Structure formats: C-alpha cells, structure tokens
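User: I'm putting together notes for a lab meeting next week and I want to include a structural view of one of the chains we've been expressing. I don't have a solved structure, so I'd like a prediction I can at least talk through. The sequence is below, exactly as it appears in our construct file.
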Amino acid sequence: MIKAKCPFCNENVSNLPVFYLCEGCGKTKIGKLFCGKPITPDIVEELLTNGRTGILDGFVSKACKRYKAILALKDGKLKLEYLSPVQKEFRIRVESGSFGVALVSVENCFSEFVDYGDVPPRMAEMLGVQTAVNFIWYQVSNVAKTSLHISLSDDCGRLYLSGAREPSRKDHKRALGCLKDSLKRFDAFSLEVYRDSARRSELEKHYRNREFPRGIFPWVEPKIRLAENEVFVTLPDSPDVLCQFKASFNDCRKVGNCEFSIPINKKNTLHAWLYKVRGELKAERSGYVVSY
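Assistant: Thanks for the context. Below is the predicted structure for the 292-residue chain, given as structure tokens.
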C-alpha cells in the first residue's frame, strides 16, 4: 500500500503487480515502467505528494540512449519534463521582492522560491541567476553552443552584469565575478528587465519559506565529516550554494573558505536538505562523501 493518497478522491493507492491504482475513483493509474525506467513506490509517493519528482536518471529514448528528466503527474497521467539535448536557448527568470528571497525559474525545468539569507533583493536576483546557470550547465552537454535569455525584475542586475555598476560590498563583488565567469561558458546571453508592480507586491508578501527548495542544486556533492559533537560540511565554491546553506542552517559556523560546522543533532536535517536541493528521492543514493 502506498502511504500517499489519490489527489482526486483522497483514497488509498494500491501497489498491484503491473501498476499502481487508486482504490476509490480509479483516476490515478500509474504503470510500473515508464520510458524504460522502473517506477518505484518511492517515486509514486513523491508524485502523489508533490505532483512531480526531482531530476531522475535512467529514462531510455527510442535510440536506446539514457537521459535524465523530471517526472510529473498531470490529470492522473505521467508526463516528462526535461531539458532537450538539442535545445539551443534556455529562458531564465529571476524575481525578488523580499530581502534575501528570489523566485528562480528555468523554463520547463523548475520554479522555486530560494532563500539566500542576508542579502538585498538585487543580490538575491544575481544569486538566483547563478543557481539557474549552474543548473543548465549541469544538464547540457555542450554549453558553448547554448544561449541564455535572462529576465530580471530589477534594472540594477542588468547594470551589474553589463559592468555599468558594481556592488559596494566585497562579498557581493565576488559573487558577481563568479556569475560573470559562469556566463562566459555559454555561447551568448541576453538580458531584459520585466517590471510588474502588482507582481512585485505579491512577491514582497512572500516571507522566508522554511521549506528547502527542490532540485535547484542537482550537481552539488558535498563532503561530510562527522565529529563528536559537530558535523563538518565542505561545499562547492559557488556563492549561491554557500548563501543558501547558511540561510537554511542559521546555527552553522564557518570554519574554512567553503567549510561549515553544524551541531550533531542537525545531521538528519542536513541529509533532508541534500535530498531536497539535489532533487533526490530518499531511496536513491547520493553522491556526497561521508567520512568518520
């Protein structure tokens, strides 16, 4: 029996030999094999709970090539949401109305509110662009032939990226420099500023969400070291990842350039953060390293 309920009638969903079926209305019917990938009970739990999964590996094309995709449940049927390997342009949209929080969207991939901590909205937008750029870099095999269209809600971000203006804080300058270096890997990028006062007011009402953002850092593989009373975490040297981690763990302590320590009682919370930001299911094996 699947723990999550049918989204149509809130009845139980049975695990049958060939498919998963709602015991009530029967509208939820999920086969156990989809595009060459076995659909496990954990995947079904994720679909019924959130409507979609994180990035999953193991789908097989008609040409017998493996690829990654996001699996979604729409009207009781499975649908694929994925980055096409032949796609030449990706559309990024980043909006910020709250201090430190940005709505980061990559078209056809994800749209998540991300808390970057103690940074002004304009820098939250820059960090959001970094998150989106890294996500696409991880998914696309040849970024040198890929272009980006970036939409921002604040004109200051456009001025930052064009070099017409620079942040005053040293850490903000470093974050902007990292973003510019990341953008150089792509064929080209274009910028537009999309102002919508009603939309901005709506975003300003979005207080910091304590839910960890899903699937924004699928490429992150931290190193974790357990000590007697602490857990030491070494993260990639990417400003967006570091800021999001600090915002997620208010009691973390910086012990190195990219290394933090958190209390040992936060170990399970750390693993929950990793599962969520990497877009994994708990049954899947993560790539991070744990040493004792």
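A couple of points you could mention at the meeting. Residues 121-139 form the longest helix (19 residues). The two ends are 37 Å apart (CA to CA).

User: Perfect, that's what I needed.
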